[in-house]
């Protein structure tokens, strides 16, 4: 047993969709969340900038005695994780590998669709993980740059006309590919999963990478005798911009009101 | 005559819509542009963060011998300008005051609509400038948070269904107010002026704040004998993230291909 906390971080508050899954799977664990709200979004920035920001995020989480870190951000997992993970003494689990494994486990026709930010798609990280594990697997990646602003501006109702317009615009290209499994490759996308599900049909598998990464962390800690099995885990939240409205915006991603203290830190110091 | 350059800055590349107007009005002037592309957008951040970023932007421009600065960003003009402008020895012209003056000059019914980012609208800066100058003037402000991501993702065709959907969503609220003049209170909005114009009708005046700020700078320099009247102005561009794709994205806002050198700087050093 190891009582240290698990760190979760993201470019903003979207990573709370992964935190939500981790809380459900590991209710006894202390969890520290960091959202880089003063520099969100990462998805439109260059690889150098994303790597620099990700190092600062992990340096900050390292100031706590954490036993593992979950990179909730698709962009950081795709662009920075392989470069920086050996610099830290604790295991760091990204969303890409976990989601790719889950997709290959469930797909029957080996045709997998990937939705993500422009940076995630440009990185080719999902395709690489998928085809390394199964060279016969076929992939099609679609950048969906309007999904994040739509979710962040409250267009989350399954009947929202703008969200459905964007889904039609992006996912029409995917239909002829006949993917039986689609990876929702950005923290925000599970929030509009219901509208996406309606467009692609009920037979298609939708993979939530945050949930898959939470399951990976859980297995890792269990296998190494490092999980907590008693008590109620404490949750704390750190952001790099104002904590005003954290509850309002955060609860959209957590799917419930947020328990735990919220603090502001200066990420440029790390 | 003063041969020093004019500085123009913005949270990103949107301020190039103001630079474009300044180049047209003052073709003999050297102009230095800074776009804070590693931290864009400012519109969703707290006032403290916006003020800190704006100081760094002006500190960077101060490393050139500039004779005046144009704040192309509606958010910075609204939230930070009054706080920081006295810290600098050169005049700093924001978009708010210039656009408010132009709106009052042209409006007949004294009913003025303001479209802007959430931060610009929350600041109440346009309303304050308008009602200070004319206490009988009535205003209605509408936050249009999806316009920036729509423009940045290429949805600029006047017939684009998503852009027209967003225009309908936001501007329907403005129609009963019967504004005869609408301020396009964010650098990106002039790019979709044609679609906005179609929705509000040809009788409504649309104010482009970047153009009005450029006219203000031009008058200020002429009146003080500080303008250049000969030669072709040199233009240089600085950004805080990668210079890749600057030409592609920048030309959307400049309305033409970009002449001049593009450099990357580390804005956190200023």
Tell me the structural class of chain A: alpha/beta
Question: What kind of sheet is the major sheet of chain A?
Answer: 6 strands, parallel
**How many β-strand runs of chain A?**
10
Q: What string, H for helix and E for strand, traces the elements of chain A in order?
A: EHEHEHHEHEHHEHHEHEHEHE
The side-by-side strand order for the widest beta sheet of chain A comes to 4-3-1-2-9-10
Beta-strand percentage range of chain A: 15-25%
Given as residue ranges, the uncertain stretches of chain A (5+ residues, pLDDT < 50) are: none
End-to-end distance of chain A, in Å? 29 Å
Fraction of residues in H or I helices of chain A: 40-55%
Report mean pLDDT of chain A, rounded to a whole number: 94
- Shape, per Cα inertia axes of chain A: globular
Compute the CA-based radius of gyration of chain A.
18 Å
CATH topology of the largest domain in chain A, by name, is Rossmann fold
Figure out the total of helices of chain A. 12
Q: How many domains would you count in the coordinates of chain A?
A: 2
CATH hierarchy, class of the largest domain in chain A: Alpha Beta
Tell me which CATH architecture of the largest domain in chain A applies here: 3-Layer(aba) Sandwich
């Amino acid at each position: 047993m190891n009582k240290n906390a698990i760190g979760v971080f993201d470019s903003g508050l979207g990573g709370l969709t992964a935190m939500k899954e981790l809380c459900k799977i590991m209710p006894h664990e202390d969890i520290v969340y960091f959202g880089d709200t003063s520099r969100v979004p990462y998805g439109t920035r260059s690889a150098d900038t994303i790597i620099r920001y990700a190092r600062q995020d992990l340096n900050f989480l390292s100031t706590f005695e954490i036993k593992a870190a979950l990179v909730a951000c698709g962009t950081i997992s795709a662009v920075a994780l392989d470069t920086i993970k050996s610099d830290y003494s604790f295991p760091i689990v990204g969303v890409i590998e976990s989601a790719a494994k889950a997709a290959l486990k469930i797909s029957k026709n080996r045709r997998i669709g990937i939705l993500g930010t422009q940076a995630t798609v440009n990185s080719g990280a999902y395709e690489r993980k998928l085809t390394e594990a199964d060279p016969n697997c076929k992939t099609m990646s679609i950048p969906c740059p309007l999904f994040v602003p739509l979710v962040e501006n409250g267009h989350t109702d399954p009947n929202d006309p703008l969200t459905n317009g964007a889904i039609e615009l992006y996912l029409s290209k995917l239909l002829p590919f006949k993917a039986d499994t689609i990876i929702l490759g950005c923290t925000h996308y599970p929030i509009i999963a219901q509208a996406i599900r309606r467009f692609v049909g009920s037979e298609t598998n939708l993979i939530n990478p945050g949930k898959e990464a939470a399951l990976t962390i859980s297995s890792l800690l269990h296998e190494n005798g490092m999980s907590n099995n008693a008590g109620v885990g404490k949750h704390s939240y750190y952001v790099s911009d104002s904590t005003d409205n954290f509850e309002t915006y955060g609860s959209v991603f957590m799917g419930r009101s947020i328990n735990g203290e919220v603090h502001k830190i200066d990420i440029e110091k790390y």
